[in-house]
Design goal:
Helix content is 35%, strand content 28%. The protein folds into 2 domains: 4-147, Fructose-1,6-Bisphosphatase, subunit A, domain 1 (Fructose-1,6-Bisphosphatase, Chain A, domain 1); 158-261, 3-Layer(aba) Sandwich (D-Maltodextrin-Binding Protein, domain 2), CATH 3.40.190.80. With 263 residues, the chain is α+β, with helices and mostly antiparallel strands. It has 7 helices and 15 strands. Bound molecules: D-MYO-inositol-1-phosphate. D-MYO-inositol-1-phosphate binds at residues 70, 86, 89-91, 163, 165, 192-194, 211, 213-214, 218.
Length: 263
Amino acid sequence: MVDADELRDLAEEIAREAGELARRRRDEGVRIADTKSALADIVTDADREVEALIRARLRDARPGDGFLGEESGAERGSTDVTWVVDPIDGTVNYAYGIPHYAVSIAAVTGEPGPEHWRAEAGVVFTPVTGELFGGARGSGAWLAGRRLAVSEATDAGALVATGFGYDPATHAGDLERVRAVMPLARDLRRAGAASLDLAYVAAGRLDGYFERGLHPWDHAAGALLVVEAGGRVGGAPGGRPGALMTIAAGPDVYAALDAAIYH
Ligand code: IPD
C-alpha cells in the first residue's frame, strides 16, 4: 500500500531544496547547454544539475522507485512508484530571467505513462515567490495551509491559459484553437510554465487551461492538484491528458473548453 501523504511530504522537501538550487544558479547566470526537439527547446546546465539533485535525493530516500525525468530519461523501479520530474518547468522564462518557473515533482503508481498511471502526489514549487502547491490523492491540494478549490464559471467569461509547442509546425493549429476558445474567454494568458498553469487552475487563479503537445513531466503534478481541487483534467475526447491535448478547469468551464476545441 502506498502512503500518498508520505510521498507528497518527500516531494515537498526535495522540491524546496531543488528550487533553491535553481534560483541560486539563475542568480549566478544561465548557460544554454543544448537544444532538444527544436531550436527554441533549450536545456540549461541548471536543468541538468537540478534534475540530478532530485534524482539523487529520491534514490537515497526510496531506492526502489522508478524515475521519469525531463532531462535524464526513464528508469523502471522495483516498487510500484515512479517519480515524474520536471526540474525547471518554464525553462525559456528561466533563461530570459522571467521569474515564472517551477520545480514539478509527481509520484505515480502503475504503468509509468500518463494513459495508465494513477497520480498519488504532486508538488509544484516556484522558488522566486516561494509558493509551494502540494497535494496527495484523497487529501486535497494546498498552498500555504489553505485548501485549494477551482473557480466556478461566471457570466464575465473565463480567464483561460494556454501554451504553444516549440515546433513551429504546430503553431497554426495552436492559434486556430485560441481562435475557437476566445468567445468564451474574458482574456487569455500564456505565462510559459505548464505546471504552474495547472497549479493556478487548482488555486482558482485561472478558470481554465488547455495545451497540445505536453510531455508527462509537464502535467503529472499539476493535473493531480486540479483534480484534488475539485476540477477536471482530460485530453482529446474521451482520453486522458497528454501529448494530443490537455484541458483543465472546473466542470462547467471544462465542458465549454472541450466543446470549443472539438466543435
Ligand atoms: C514547457 C513549458 C511551457 C509549455 C511547453 C513545455 P519546459 O516546459 O511548460 O509552458 O508551453 O509545452 O514544454 O520546456 O519549460 O520544461
